[in-house]
User: Fold these one by one.
Assistant:
Number 1:
Amino acid sequence: MSGSSAATNGEVSGDTALRRQLDNGGTTRPRATALDALHVAHRWFQAGRRIDIQAIAAELGVSRVTLHRWVGTRDQLLVEVLWLNADRSIDRTADAVRADRPARSWTAEILSRWAADVVRHPGIRHLQETEAELLARLLTQDASTF
């Protein structure tokens, strides 16, 4: 049997993602997902870059409408990025504190170090400098999931 798909003698044939990638020499890029959008937004946040829906859509090769369907509004995406960042930061901080300190002082030390990291974080600093009102609203409103 050759490398091409053929439906002969009961063999299954079809256009699959794998077949398309093989036919293109492996250069076909897999489709982006909502999680890819979150990861791009988080990477940009880590670098202190503004989260821009149109630019993220362009980087992922999807339309702005598709990205909005995946992540909701820019505010909703920012909240998810803030949560992702907080989870990862607290986990890293907790691991470092457990390695450095006796068990009885973990909570206070974790919160103290985490707060210091938040203040220094490039993404938070960027939001404070350019969109302070938005940041305050996302962090404090009852309507916010953060």
Note: The chain has one domain: 34-140.
Number 2:
Amino acid sequence: MTAVSKRDDPVGFTNEFIRGTVPGIYEGFGIRIVELESGRAVATVPIATNGNHLGTMYAGALFGVAEVLGGALAIVDYDTDRFLPTVKDLQISFRRPATTDVRGEASLDAATRERMRREVESSGRSEFVVDAVLVDAAGTVVATTHGVYQVRAVR
């Protein structure tokens, strides 16, 4: 397998990184980062492999697609040989049943990213908040999340 360059292909790099560190997200849920740039991440999860007994998307798959967004937002901005993201807390509110593929999106503003850079440089870690919105194929909000994450130096 050829190494994917984060600079040339941040989406491919992040998908490979997550596949290597949390393979169940890919093999099980089928979660994929589909758009990624500094301050913005978008991921999808398919209904085909995540249906439940009610014919709607399994709650764990919705949680998973939302949770991975915070990590992706950190991965794109930090050297993963030196700094790694982790989730500290994530709360999900289910709004409507999802019966189609789901797309999740989250962002971090420039001021937050700058604060994070300063804190990481001075103390080796920084905490950040990510609010994500998950929508179905029609654009209906099916869930929202509020998460607390941290990017920290590798020990």
Note: DSSP finds four helices and six strands in the chain.
